[in-house]
């Protein structure tokens, strides 16, 4: 038994991974540095509300943002919104800043930016502050049954 359901879930998934502990950071760039990676290899796990008590998880590279039109088109929905902190906690069991696609019960559908396929090692939350899971992005995609979709665009300004 690990410290979080996410660590249990990744251990049970059978993929190669490593846990990285880091001091809290004030920016994504600082977080990437402390995790020993780059901003584009940090995948933010964002909770998107698709309806009344209905959510999907989207994995967005740190240097990109959601293209809401593309995501709406993929899901076939006219209205989407980011879950607020309370909704995200209720939907995933994790607080903002620790949300991960691993260990969410009941499981939510996961959508991953298609452009990250084949990118190698990425970093995702581990369900705990100051803790990340590093693993191959293709292993991540398979382990959480993520659907690759082109739904992001380049972020503007510093991150």
What report would you give on this structure?
With about 160 residues, the chain is α+β, with helices and mostly antiparallel strands. Strands 5-2-3-6-9 form a 5-stranded mixed β-sheet, covered by helices on one side. It has one domain (about 5-155): YbaK protein (Alpha-Beta Complex). It has helices at about 5-15, 30-35, 70-75, 85-90, 135-145; strands at about 15-20, 45-50, 55-60, 65, 80, 110-115, 120-125, 130-135, 145-150, 150-155.
Give a quick rundown of the structure.
By secondary structure, the chain is of the alpha+beta class. The chain has helices spanning 5-13, 28-35, 68-75, 85-92, 137-143, and strands at residues 17-21, 43-51, 54-61, 64-66, 81-82, 110-113, 121-125, 131-136, 147-149, 152-154. The chain has five helices and ten strands; from the N terminus they run H-E-H-E-E-E-H-E-H-E-E-E-H-E-E.
